[in-house]
Write a structure and sequence with these properties.
five-stranded parallel beta sheet; binds adenosine-5'-triphosphate; four-stranded mixed beta sheet; single chain; binds magnesium ion; 18 strands
């Protein structure tokens, strides 16, 4: 036979998705050679050395032929060592050491050690979901990531420790144990989330957090040092509803490509990047695009403490992702989309000295400069702004004056969310904050009395068009929390009260 062609399906990671790549191996008589084509990066080209050693050290034959490996489609950039296994299997099939029929409907993904052992790769869950989408019924991976891959439905995941075992498997002489089901209770010990019961006083801020959680609204807390802003924000994750199955898969998918998971995510992420973070660190990107903090916080909370200290470019970079719930990164000819649906919570002092109000010692100029750092357009994307005052002495002194606990608040939040998901079932929005602008105006109707304060605010120029829609959504959430069918005048008035006046201005007021 002059030549043999083998083809093996595998996957390349693109953002948090996996794209199917076919590894073709052509073996023909001639001077022994081993070439890899199809846009491979250095790590993929080095696969030749690993594959050769892995085969020989597994007592398999490395054919002394002209071997050409093609990774198709050629325009997809291939990076990393995850193609090792597919190349090795292709070589085995092309040299008749495994039956080609066994590779039909069977994808493989793994790095190889020189000794022939399979090593885990990043993105096992997206790869497994990619298999399901492509109609591939079987996936071979290293045992370490098998249970993560097993989160995908209707996929036989084979946990294979090394090449020898894989050959046995493909000959039908060995069957691996099914991987343990990921996310069993013993595996995922939930990390303790601080409780709202620890917070004394600050009833306005508590209310704002509850509204934020109930409708998915972004929130900014402004107040003097030590008022409890950071403390409150850290308790936001504890009052959010637990993730649905789809949301849990979304969260796990991101964890899967950024460094492994311990089964299906049970909790929403809470990310609090330091204010020195770069724009790229916050929204992602780079020559080899990595997800940023906003993607790591997908379906959870992104907390920007000391908002005014963040660089302006970093804050500006947040604008588009906050609006769209995703980050678009373009590299070469390929556009990647990272998910970025977060609940944004931010904290800031009212002015550089932090005191604000009448006792503020900052000059007018310093206050103005501080205010300018919070870009107007970002503030316009924040639904709820609440002002904290220093705790009165009685509240500090009263040892037992703890507030309502997170569990009770979460109960109300979940009830409000249930109303929203039932009402917006056909629109694709999971909560009020996700409702598109057009749908908001169409579907959140106000009677005359409720519409009047809104019209007045627009006429007076204190509300932008975007602000108008945001007030409507917040008012809808307030009605949902109250169990009201229609949005009333009180709901609109309270929602208007949360509209932003940038922090510096309150100090000047
Ligand atoms: N409302 C409160 N109830 C209970 N403890 C509080 C409250 N406010 C502040 N504290 C105590 O003060 C500490 C500091 O609070 P926190 O860090 O939340 O203040 P902050 O408003 O973020 O201040 P800064 O502007 O300096 O960041 C808390 O760890 C807590 O012990
Ligand atoms: Mg703080």
């Amino acid at each position: 036979m002059p030549f043999v062609l083998a083809s093996v399906p595998t996957f390349a990671l693109e953002g948090v998705d996996a794209r199917e790549v076919t590894v073709e191996v052509d073996a023909r008589r001639g001077l022994p050679a081993f070439t890899v084509v199809g846009l491979p990066d250095t790590a993929v080209r080095e696969a030749r050395e690993r594959v050769r050693s892995a085969l020989l050290n597994s007592e398999l034959e490395f054919p002394l032929q002209r071997l050409t490996v093609n990774l198709a489609p050629a325009w997809v950039r291939k990076a990393g060592a995850s193609f090792d296994l597919a190349i090795a299997v292709g070589v085995l099939a092309a040299s008749g050491q495994v039956p080609a029929e066994a590779l039909e409907g069977c994808a493989v993904s793994g790095e190889l050690s020189l000794g022939g052992a399979l090593r885990p790769v990043r993105g096992a869950l997206p790869i497994a979901l990619g298999c399901t989408a492509a109609g591939i019924g079987r996936l071979v991976v290293a045992p370490e990531i098998a249970s993560e891959a097993g989160l995908a439905d209707e996929l036989e995941v084979c946990a294979v420790p090394d090449l020898r075992r894989l050959v046995e498997l493909l000959h039908g002489r060995w069957t691996p144990d099914p991987p343990p089901r990921a996310g069993s209770d013993s595996e995922t010990s939930s990390r303790p989330v601080p409780d709202l019961a620890d917070v004394r006083g600050q009833s306005d801020a508590r209310r704002a957090l509850e509204v934020a959680a109930a409708g998915g609204h972004s929130v900014l807390m402004v107040g003097p040092p030590g008022a409890g802003k950071t403390m409150l924000a850290r308790r936001l994750a504890g009052i959010l509803p637990p993730p649905t199955i789809d949301e849990a898969l979304d969260i796990t998918r991101v964890q899967s490509v950024t460094g492994g998971t311990s089964g299906l995510a049970r909790e929403r992420p809470f990310r609090a990047p330091h204010h020195t973070i770069s724009a790229q660190g916050l929204v992602g990107g780079g020559a080899r695009p990595r997800p940023g903090e906003i993607t790591l916080a997908h379906r959870g909370v992104l907390f920007l403490d000391e908002l005014a200290e963040f660089s302006r470019t970093a804050l500006e970079a947040l604008r588009q992702p906050l609006e769209h719930g995703s980050v678009d990164v373009v590299r070469g000819q390929v556009a990647l989309r990272f998910p970025a649906r977060v609940l944004l919570v931010a904290a800031a002092n009212p002015c550089p000295c932090g005191v604000g109000g009448e006792r503020c010692e900052c000059g007018v100029l310093a206050r103005e400069r501080y205010r300018a750092r919070l870009s107007g357009p970002l503030i316009d994307r924040i639904d709820l702004v609440c002002h904290l005052t220093p705790l009165p002495a009685v509240a500090v002194a009263a040892a037992a004056a703890a507030g309502e606990g997170s569990e009770a608040v979460r109960g109300r939040v979940v009830a409000a969310r249930d109303r929203q998901s039932a009402r917006w079932a056909t629109t694709g929005a999971a909560c009020n904050a996700e409702l598109a602008a057009g749908a908001t105006r169409l579907l959140v109707s106000l009677d005359d009395a409720a519409a009047r304060p809104l019209a007045a605010a627009l006429d007076a120029g204190v509300l932008t068009g975007r602000g108008h829609d945001r007030v409507l959504r917040v008012a809808r959430t307030l009605a949902d929390l109250a169990g009201a069918k229609r949005v009333g005048r009180d709901h609109v008035a309270e929602a208007l009260g949360y509209r932003a006046v940038a922090p510096g201005r309150t100090a000047a007021a």
